[in-house]
Amino acid sequence: MSDNRRLRIAVQKSGRLSKDSIELLKAIGIKLNIRDRLLIAHSTNEDIDLLRVRDDDIPGLVMDGVVDMGFIGENELEEKMLERKAAGKIADYEVMRRLDYGGCRLSIAVPNEANYSGVQSLEGKRVATTYPFLLERYFKEQNVNAQAVMLTGSVEVAPRAGVAEGICDLVSTGATLEANGLVEKDVIFRSKAVLIKRTGEFSTEKQALIDRLVPRIDGVMQAKESKYIMLHAPKARLEEVKDLLPGAENPTVLPLAGAEDTVAIHVVSPENLFWETMEKLKALGCSSILVMPIEKMMG
Ligand code: ATP
Ligand code: MG
After folding, report:
1. Which is the most buried residue in 21, 124, 150, 165, by most CB within 10 A?
2. φ, ψ at 74 (rounded to 5°)
3. Nearest Cα residue to atom 21 of ligand 1
């Protein structure tokens, strides 16, 4: 089943990174036939196989060269890197792109009623976490003698269970912390999903495939942030209108049939247009202001 000529990419099988990673692969033109129970999914239009695994396994698979690339959260990647280095294992990889999903932070939190005046307050205490290496590195940097207690799940109940005085866990909204009577205190690591690849040479074919796909990722990410803006503007206010449009140094200006004093302006904006800007444009006499999403971009 495994063919070494095909590019092997590891993705999280099911979890917070799965959907966005698969969607990104689809958006860059890779057709996938994913069957829920199967570890491997073959692309039907490119020489690519997906390996669907737990996210914990992805850094090691890349570092051992078992797969060529992987989508992984920086938190997990950095933790595994430290763990492997401590065990004297190879921990090399290359980050190809930082992606626009999977955002979260690894934070220290303590019970609402705890006396906390900075990480020094944890001196001599126990902190439950799934990321002991990241946490211990932080303690070392901060010169704090505290103990990281490894828990692979239910970290947030550790203080109530009397297992630890604080926790260090991933947070995105803070709702889980609040529900467990905890307050976020120190952010020790900020994370996003990244696309990584193994070190070492690739065959000419694999390299050519990578070189074709990576610019498409840039195109998809750029397109998500960009907008296509169209509007009608009074000719006399053209310069003021241009000044209001982000990235509109050279907009396309088109004549409007039957309207001598008005032109149509089209522009690809690198960012969204805020309501406030639209209102200012309207005040200048602009009309029919349209802001549209862009699906793909190149060049
Ligand atoms: P697996 O079964 O694959 O081991 P998991 O339970 O370890 O799954 P998930 O909860 O699916 O992992 O999270 C995967 C990654 O998603 C995290 O390591 C992190 O990079 C990212 N992430 C984004 N937001 C959050 C969040 N609010 N909480 C936890 N992880 C988040
Ligand atoms: Mg995991």
Report:
1. 21
2. -60, -35
3. 102
